[in-house]
Amino acid sequence: MAADKPARPSLRVVPPAEPDPAEQVRQRVRKMARPDGIVQCNRCGSRTLLTLVNGVFIENGRKTGGTVIEKDICADCYKRGIITSMLPALKPI
Ligand SMILES: [Zn+2]
C-alpha cells in the first residue's frame, strides 16, 4: 500500500553561500575596469597567459620544433587544474 511508504524529503532551494575571501578577491578583480585590448581571464580575472609546448630542441641557441599542447590559456586556472581559454574563439566567416 502507498500509505506504508516513507515520505520523500521535499526539495528546497538553498540560498547561495557567502564567498570565501579568495573568491571575494576574484569577484572584485573581475569587476574592475579593463584597459582596452587587454587579455584577461573571464573566470578568475588573471592576466597571465600560458602556452604549453612539448618536445622543444635547442639548436644554435634557439628553441626549435615542438608540439603546442595548449595555447593562450589562463596560467592561474591551470594551476588549479582548470583549462580556460583567454582568447575568444574566432568563428569562420
Ligand atoms: Zn583564470
| Ends distance | 63 Å
Bound molecules: zinc ion
* Order of strands in the sheet with most strands: 1-4
Radius of gyration: 23 Å
What does this structure look like?
With 93 residues, the protein is an alpha+beta fold. The chain has a domain at 48-87. It has two helices and four strands; from the N terminus they run αββββα. The chain has helices spanning 21-31, 75-79, and strands spanning 49-54, 57-59, 62-64, 67-74. It has a two-stranded antiparallel sheet with strand order 1-4. A two-stranded antiparallel ribbon has the order 2-3. β2 and β3 (62-64) form a beta hairpin. The chain is elongated. The N and C termini lie far apart (63 Å). The chain binds zinc ion (ZN). The site of zinc ion (ZN) has 8 residues, from α2.
Tags for this model:
4 strands; elongated; two-stranded antiparallel sheet; 93 residues; alpha+beta; single chain; binds zinc ion
Short structural summary:
This protein is of the alpha+beta class.
Helices and strands, with pairings:
Blueprint lengths: L20 H11 L17 E6 L2 E3 L2 E3 L2 E8 H5 L14
Antiparallel strand pairs: 1-4, 2-3
The chain binds zinc ion.
